[in-house]
Specification:
The structure is a single chain. This protein is mainly alpha-helical. The protein is built from four helices and no strands. The chain has one domain: 434 Repressor (Amino-terminal Domain) (Orthogonal Bundle), CATH 1.10.260. Helix 2 packs across helix 3.
Length: 67
């Protein structure tokens, strides 16, 4: 389900095990989140983008659609 995240982790040579350790969860839980079986928490998304992928913008920007 999160193919782009999987690809980004792969591109940075970050294993699912390492990603799980980074988030403080088990490898199985990380797999479930990446497969869409479990949801990511806001803090997991924020930590992932802020630290691992600062080059990506994941926030909603109302001004970009004319607000």
């Amino acid at each position: 389900m999160f193919a782009n995240l999987r690809r980004a982790l792969f591109d940075k040579n970050i294993s699912i095990k390492s990603y799980a350790e980074f988030l403080g969860i088990t490898e199985k839980t990380a797999q479930n989140k990446l497969n869409g079986t479990s949801e990511f928490t806001f803090s997991e998304v924020e930590k992932t983008t802020r630290i691992l992928f600062p080059e990506f913008n994941w926030t909603y920007e109302p001004e970009s659609i004319g607000f």
